[in-house]
């Protein structure tokens, strides 16, 4: 069973993230484009709310993403405060603009 403890080293984490970032970015763009197309063009209107129900396909996932970013910030800050690990500070700083954007 492989563990991810080797990623706790910031230098190794940076090398690993630079390798997987292009593939993950492409997958994110494709998934986002497909989801927006299905939510805004393919999904039928609601029988009571009509076309206005489509805002739910954007608003609710955005709210969950913001909640996830703020939870990540809280956990990373706890790691930084308890274990004094520098990577916790970096993760919290990186998650803050994402949470604010969503």
Task: Describe the fold and architecture.
- The protein is mainly α and 102 residues long.
- The protein contains three helices and no strands.
- The chain has helices spanning 10-42, 56-83, 86-101.
- The longest helix is centred in the first third of the chain and has 33 residues, at 10-42.
- It is elongated and about 55 Å long.
- The mean pLDDT is 91.
Feature tags:
mainly alpha; elongated
Give the termini distance in whole angstroms.
36 Å
**What is the residue-averaged pLDDT?**
91
The counted number of beta strands is 0
Question: What summary fits the major beta sheet?
Answer: none
How do you describe this structure in short?
With 102 residues, this protein is mainly α. The chain is 75% helix and 0% strand.
Question: What's the arrangement of secondary structure elements?
Answer:
Elements: H1 10-42, H2 56-83, H3 86-101
Helix pairs in contact: 2-3
